[in-house]
Records
---
Amino acid sequence: MIQKSNRGAFNDFIHFLLMTLLSGAMIAICATSSLTANVLSQDGRIVGSLLFSLGMFVILAFEMKLFTGLIPKIPHTSPKSYWQLPVCLIGNLVGVFIVYLLVSQTYFASDIINAGSLLIANKLSLDNWALSSLCSGVLCGVLITLSVLSVDPSHKNGLSANVGVMFPRIVFVFCGFDHSIANMFYFYCLGELSWKVIGYISLTILGNIIGGIILPLVLKLRDNDPV
C-alpha cells in the first residue's frame, strides 16, 4: 500500500515537472511568434500581442504549469505545496531554453535572436533599470492574475471567459510589461550573464509575485469578512 502511494506521488511529480517544461516551451514559442511579428509587420506590436495571448490560452486550456499562473493560488496553497513554485520556475526556464536551442538552428534564427537581444538590451540600458523591472513586473503580475482568476466570475456573470483570459495577456504584451518566463527567452537571445542581468531577472520575478498576489489576498480578505 505504501509502495503504491509512493509510486502515485512520484508519478504526480513527474507529470507536474513535464507540465512545467511544456509551459515554458509554449511561452518561448509565444515569444518567438511575437518577435517574428515585430520583424515582419509594421503593426508587429498588435499582431505579436495577439499571437502571444493565443499561446497563453493553450497553457490554461491544457492546465500546463506556469510560474506566474501558480502565484495567484499562493494564499490558498498549503505550505506543503510551496515546493511547486521553485520547481515550476526551474522547469519553465528549462522549457524556454529547449525551444531557444531549437529556434537557434532554424533559418530565421538570426532575425529572432537579434530582435530578442535588442529588446532586452534596451531595457537593461535604462538608468533606472532596477526600478523599471520591478514596477513592470508588478503590472504584468496583476494582469496575469486577472487572466487566471477571471474564468469563474465570467461564467457566474454570463460573460465570455475567453475575453477575460485573453485581454489581460494582450495588454501586458502590447505594453511590454516584464514577464519573468518570457524574458528568459530574450536573455537567452542576448547570450550574456552579468550581475545586472541576474538583478533584472530577480526583480522581475519579485514584481510578478507582488503583482500576482494582490488580488487573491484582497479576495481572501473579502471572503473571510463576516460582514
---
Amino acid sequence: MKYIVLRSFVKKFDSYSKQEQELITSTIEKIKEYLETNQAPYGLRIKRLSKRIYEGRINIHLRIAYFREKDIVKFFCLGNHDDIGFCLKTLKQRLK
C-alpha cells in the first residue's frame, strides 16, 4: 500500500503542539496498521464518510480524513469535526 500526505495536511499538522503532533503521528501509524491488517483499535473509530473517504479519530476533538483508492491512501485533512466537514465540502466543489 502506498501512503501520501498532502500539503494541506502537513500545513495543518505544523500548526499543532509537539504533544499533539506525536498523537497525530501515532494515529496515522494505527490507521496504516488497520489498512494492512483490517483490525482497528476501538479508540480509532474508523468511519466511512463517502464511497472512498474515511475518517479516523485521534481523540475527542481531533480527526484525520483520508481518501482510499485501491492501494493508494491520501491523508488530506486534519482537524476537528467542523474542519473535516469544511474539507469535504471544499473537495466536492473542486470535483464538480
